[in-house]
Amino acid sequence: MTNKPQATVIGAGLAGCEAAWQLLRRGVAVTLHDMKPGKMSPAHASDLFAELVCSNSLRSDRLQNAVGLLKEEMRRLDSLIIRAADRARVPAGGALAVDRDQFSGYITTQLKAHPLLTFVEGEVTDFPAQDAIIATGPLTSDAFSEAIAGLPQGGMLHFYDAAAPIVTRESINMDRAFKASRYGRGDDDYINCPMNEEEYRAFYEALLTAKTAPIHGFEESRVFEGCMPVESLARRGEMALAFGPLKPVGLIDPHTGRRPYAVLQLRRDDASDSMYNLVGFQTRLLFPEQKRVFGMIPGLEQAEFARYGVMHRNTFLNSPGFLDNQYMMKDSQGVYFAGQMTGVEGYVESAASGLHAGLSLAHRLLGKAPVNFPSATAMGALSRYVSTPNRNYQPMHISFGLIDPLPERVRGKEQRYLKVAEHALTLIDEIANINQ
Description:
Blueprint: E1 6-10, H1 14-24, E2 29-34, E3 57-60, H2 66-76, H3 80-87, E4 89-90, E5 95-98, H4 100-112, E6 117-121, E7 130-134, H5 142-149, E8 156-163, E9 166-168, E10 178-179, E11 190-195, H6 197-209, H7 230-234, E12 262-268, E13 275-278, H8 287-294, E14 305-307, E15 310-317, E16 333-337, H9 347-365, H10 378-387, H11 413-434
Parallel strand pairs: 1-2, 1-7, 2-6, 7-16
Antiparallel strand pairs: 3-5, 4-5, 8-15, 9-13, 9-14, 10-11, 11-12, 12-13
């Protein structure tokens, strides 16, 4: 390995694993550091790399959806994360959802088996001087967070993230629930728990008065919209849930032949079809309260919880002005950041930033020009968002609003988004052909 260019990657989550893979496949020797399994954050439970701590869904796989486009761009750039997701896929309608253990297991095996990878277990506390990618995630240890916060312009921000509960398949009452995908997309991949108006209002009232777990420093205003706890959302109004995670549109209850007043969808969480998570039901309710209140939903009366919902604090950088569009810290000797700590939000976005940072550092070490993804691509739109000054900077999912529009007018949103996606993929193919 001594004859090879050397790089350090700190953090073996989605972004760190993707960054390491991009370096390895270009002949760069990588030392990958992770504090697991010796030290675990409150949200981690597995010894495997790339652990999915919240949902098991990587969201939509359709090109007319921006995250579907981002995944396809990453496929064409030989993303290890997307390859693993495709291999570990479980039915989820138009979404790409995975068996968590198969997904993380494949990534762990591929990286540990690579001859150019050295894995070092243990917490890193000293900030690297050069040729490194920091992908320690939103649950970065206190000691390393202090090292980052002490950097010039390295101000750390935070918000709160939450995970939804998981129940066992056999404990769901299918006399009340039914299987279907919204709008008939995909097979009957979701289990749906329908509510009439009386049931919905009773559930809503119980949710408002349920006891929540105290979280040190918790501020309602700091909760990220994409992971809003269901009880926080309920406080916005009586119909907030019915127009949000419990919206019934696109579903007909076969028991009644009518659209329900509200519907909770359950998505498969593993390949064996034994566990389902409550879609959109991130929560910080006390565990007994989760069992009591969520048990009021038809179909979940006797639900067995394989995992209760939890909430934790996430930390991210004030990246604009601190990072450039390669995810490199300005005025550094090749020190990059990647993942959710940069202010991208979501599994796919985190992995995409790792792909970009890994590719960028590889090019730097090999004496090649940086790869600049055009902002007409999802990859380029993300890096532009992270690096462009924004005084109200907040974590952001990829969206077509971030991607440059087409110069010509296209009627209809679906058709317009598809044309944007096709143009983006043409640009990505050109980059992929040059940078294999």
